[in-house]
Specification:
The protein is of the alpha/beta class and 389 residues long. 39% of the residues lie in helices and 15% in strands. The chain is built from 13 helices and 12 strands.
């Protein structure tokens, strides 16, 4: 490890990650004891090491002694074929000179999970073990997922325009804000022609019931119809089951709109789930996941056909009983984006009850008044729709 004292903390983190992965690491503060000759120790480390990790920052590039630490390995491999010098950028800096010829591993702006992924993949792509997730890793991910869904629900709650008065408690308080959304009450299922379904349409009055019956589908709908909301409802349901049962499938809720680079799909998914990291691929192959891919239409238009083809190939490599739902705006689900799956189309209970912004604003004003002590009117019907204006 070649670094300056200003970067000791991140350098030690890198060294520990390499050690955890089974590598032998020479690290100054671990291996050089008081009374040792530092120069001789560094010379021995350089001669006995396969590679040198150069921890790049402004302070590193300005330091004089660090140049000698990587120069010997660079001289032994000037073309970089054997990758004797591995630069790892840990802070914003401009790399110049000979080091600028080498591709570096970039950890800037990454959280810890993504740093780990990039570090290990960059050092030996394809040769590191896929890794495994502990039960604690799974729990941390599932709890974060549920927290994020709850935060989305709180943001969504003031935009409700219809309140329904129903007897008995709600089934899931976490999703209370979405429970009465008219846009997600009916799903229309169309099987693929030639796949044994005959192309006949079937309607489901409950979205979650539809997902239990249709294992793999593209979820279609107009903008704002509730596609992402529906996927989050499904993710919350599966996350609760996975928290209670270690053998249950783990929902991977992934926003496809963030997939803009050339990295493979599985690696992109792993980046979105840092708690599981490299274990994602093994979990997918074992049939331990439910894939919830949100926003097929949000991928860059120029890349959409190629990425849709990659998704289709990846789905074909998963166990056949792996649950998959991919959301897409209906008009954008064209031939180039076709994934070869059944379609579930979101339909409104009553298309005439679309809200205008003024109605939503009026509702929020009345809600504030109710919170201040005014009583809300209730309709006499046992299960009816109440307009608040």
């Amino acid at each position: 490890m070649s670094f300056t004292s200003a970067d000791r903390a991140i350098a030690e983190w890198i060294a520990q990650e390499l050690k955890n992965a089974g590598k032998t690491v020479y690290f100054q503060h671990w291996d050089f004891l008081p009374g040792n000759n530092f120069v001789l120790g560094m010379d021995e480390a350089a001669r006995n090491s396969d590679r040198v990790i150069a921890v790049l920052s402004e302070s590193y590039l300005k330091a004089k002694y660090t140049q000698a630490e990587w120069a010997a390995h660079f001289n032994a491999d000037p073309t970089g074929v054997r990758r004797k010098v591995i630069p790892v950028r840990v802070a914003e800096c401009e790399v110049t000179g000979l080091l600028a010829q080498l591709v570096y591993i970039d950890l800037v702006g990454c959280d810890e999970g993504r740093k780990r992924q990039r570090l290990l993949d960059g050092l030996d792509p394809g040769t590191w073990p896929p890794g495994s997730a502990t039960r604690q890793d799974e729990i941390r991910y599932l709890q974060r997922l549920l927290t994020e869904i709850e935060q989305k629900a709180r943001l969504y709650s003031p935009l409700e325009g219809i309140a329904q008065v129903r007897p008995g408690p709600r089934a899931d308080p976490l999703l209370e804000a979405w429970a009465d959304d008219p846009d997600i009450a009916i799903l229309s299922h169309v099987p693929r022609q030639g796949d044994g379904g005959g192309g006949e349409t079937q309607e489901y009055a409950d979205a979650l019931q539809a997902f239990d019956s249709v294992r793999r589908a593209v979820l279609l709908g107009e903008p704002g119809a509730g596609k992402s909301t529906t996927l989050r409802r499904r993710a919350a349901e599966l996350a609760r089951k996975a928290l209670a049962d270690p053998e249950a499938c783990i929902p991977l809720f992934v926003p496809l709109g963030s997939w803009r680079s050339a990295e493979p799909l599985v690696r992109f998914i792993a980046d979105q789930v840092p708690e599981l990291g490299r274990a994602v691929e093994a979990l997918m192959r074992a049939g331990r996941v439910a894939l919830l891919l949100d926003g097929l239409n949000e991928m860059p238009t120029a890349q959409r056909a190629a990425k849709a083809a990659e998704i289709r190939t990846a789905l074909g490599q998963l166990p056949k009983d792996t649950a998959v739902v991919v959301s897409c705006r209906e008009k954008d689900y064209t031939a180039e984006a076709d994934l070869g799956l059944d379609t579930l189309t979101l339909q409104e209970l009553n298309p005439h009850f679309r809200f205008e912004p003024r109605v939503r604003i009026s509702w929020m004003l009345v809600r504030i008044n109710i919170d201040r002590g005014l009583k809300a009117a209730k309709t006499p019907a046992e299960d009816s729709t109440q307009w608040v204006t």
